[in-house]
Specification:
It is built from 3 helices and 5 strands, in the order E-H-E-H-H-E-E-E. The chain has 83 residues and is α+β, with helices and mostly antiparallel strands. The protein has one domain: Beta-grasp domain (Ubiquitin-like (UB roll)). A hairpin with a 2-residue loop joins strand 3 and strand 4 (60-62). The longest helix has 9 residues, at 29-37.
Length: 83
């Protein structure tokens, strides 16, 4: 599964994307965010407030309760503002 990071999430983790293999315990977006936080200080720093992290599975915005299923790509990004 490919994880893609945007904006300050990418800056804090230190990479734009990575391919990962998840254990069977990681079933939902919330599970994924918890798992990522356990991978090291940079992930913990980027995801210290998981509730504000927006997520898209295969380019479709989803809720943190969404199951990952057979997702090929998951994007994580902070809330966006603009005008």
């Amino acid at each position: 599964m490919r994880l893609i990071y945007f904006a300050w999430v990418r800056e804090r983790i230190g990479k734009p994307q990575e391919d990962v293999e998840l254990s069977g315990e990681v079933e939902t977006v919330a599970d994924l965010l918890r798992w990522l936080k356990s991978r090291g200080e940079e992930y913990e720093n980027a995801l210290q407030y998981p509730d504000v992290i927006r997520v898209a599975i295969d380019q479709e915005h989803v809720d943190h309760r969404e199951k990952l299923g057979d997702a090929r790509e998951i994007a994580l990004f902070p809330p966006m503002t603009g005008g």
